[in-house]
């Protein structure tokens, strides 16, 4: 039986080997005595020091953590995060998830629970160690979003959705999950970038494409599906992928400070559709673009008759270089940008052509749901 830690990695070009260095310099530093800065002997014996009462930490036991601190966020979020274990006839996998309703609905990644969709057994572990059976609800392989439901529970703590559109680069965030099976692990960092198109293989020739939040909070195998929260403890993203430096085709490294999360606004919309309809649909521009072209912009190779793009006047040979204020670098960034729009939105495209140095603006109204 094959065992995996349920994550997706994003290649960084040339693979590089990484080593853990056990010591620094010749000989290294073996210890450091903290005490009186004076070099003179103050008469205190080692026995007296070892038998003295420990000094209190900044936050002592029993004191409530100050709002806005990582400690306060952890206390609020941890009870609403679960570890997920899936065992199928061919493989076992594990990951994390966010409880999003008191009756046990859990938001996670498709790649974490795909085995349960095919008839595998699924169990979740709560923050307090309690274990519950869970059932697969629905998932979408193209965006790597899934919903499961914990069986026979009620009045559970749950996370509230924050507004991922308001995230700012440099803003502090906290990631929670079960990396490498270590339940209830908390790491902190910042938002490193937003609107980062990231594609990852889902196996079987399929891939997912997300318009990701990039973070340097440590995210490792097993964090997949767990929450990325703001400093108020609100869900602003779902940790889904990491970039990895590896020494070979099968070697994988841990966190290198490049983690990617699905924005909460998008995940919330996907979860609603999965629960209500069992499947998701996305706003469509109605054009096909060349994914092999690496020049600036998304190159339109065909336009579907009657589509939003056709009605707006897009044509074969157009190159879309901007959606509203967002630069479009390639086909993936255009697809991710349109998927992230709301149904019925009016957007402005900047369009050029290979044989024309000028550009034009095209207003497109995306179809209603």
Automatic annotation (TrEMBL):
Protein's UniProt name: Serine protease
Region listing for Disordered, in residue ranges: 42-66
Family: Belongs to the peptidase S1C family.
One GO term (biological process): proteolysis
Keywords: Hydrolase, Protease
Keyword Ribonucleoprotein included in the entry's annotation: no
GO MF assignments: serine-type endopeptidase activity
Family matches, as InterPro entries: Chloro_Bact_Ser_Proteases, PDZ, PDZ_sf, Peptidase_S1_PA, Peptidase_S1_PA_chymotrypsin, Peptidase_S1C
Segments of skewed composition (Polar residues): 48-63
Domain PDZ span(s) in chain numbering: 269-355
């Amino acid at each position: 039986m094959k065992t995996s830690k349920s994550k997706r990695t994003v290649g960084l070009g040339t693979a590089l080997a990484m080593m853990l260095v056990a010591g620094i310099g010749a000989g290294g530093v073996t210890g450091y005595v903290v005490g009186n800065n004076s070099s003179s002997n103050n008469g205190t014996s080692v026995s007296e020091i070892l038998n003295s009462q420990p000094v209190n930490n900044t936050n002592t036991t029993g004191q409530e953590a100050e709002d806005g601190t990582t400690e306060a966020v952890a206390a609020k979020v941890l009870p609403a995060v679960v570890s997920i274990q899936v065992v199928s006839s061919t493989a076992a996998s594990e990951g994390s998830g966010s409880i999003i309703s008191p009756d046990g609905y859990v938001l996670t990644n498709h790649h974490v629970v795909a085995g349960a969709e095919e008839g595998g057994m699924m169990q979740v572990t709560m923050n307090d160690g309690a274990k519950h059976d869970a059932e697969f609800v629905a998932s979408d392989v193209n965006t790597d979003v899934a919903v499961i439901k914990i069986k026979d529970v009620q009045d559970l703590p749950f996370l509230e959705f924050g507004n991922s559109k308001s995230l700012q680069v440099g803003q502090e965030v906290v990631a929670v999950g079960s990396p490498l099976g270590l339940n209830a692990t908390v790491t902190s960092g910042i938002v490193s970038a937003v609107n980062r198109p990231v594609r990852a293989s889902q196996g079987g020739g399929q891939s997912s494409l997300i318009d990701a939040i990039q973070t340097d909070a440590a995210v490792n195998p097993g964090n997949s599906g767990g929450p990325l929260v703001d400093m108020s403890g609100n869900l602003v993203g779902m940790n889904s992928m990491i970039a990895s430096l590896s020494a070979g085709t099968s070697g994988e490294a841990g966190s290198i400070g490049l983690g990617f999360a699905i924005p909460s606004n998008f995940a919330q919309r996907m979860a609603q559709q999965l629960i209500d309809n069992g499947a998701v649909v996305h706003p469509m521009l109605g054009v096909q673009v060349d994914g092999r072209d690496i020049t600036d912009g998304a190159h339109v190779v065909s336009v579907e008759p009657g589509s939003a793009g056709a009605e707006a006047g897009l044509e074969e040979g157009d190159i879309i270089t901007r959606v509203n204020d967002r630069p479009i670098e390639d086909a993936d960034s255009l697809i991710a940008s349109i998927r992230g729009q709301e149904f019925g939105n009016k957007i402005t495209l900047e369009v050029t052509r290979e044989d024309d140095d000028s550009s034009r603006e095209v207003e497109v109204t995306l179809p209603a749901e």
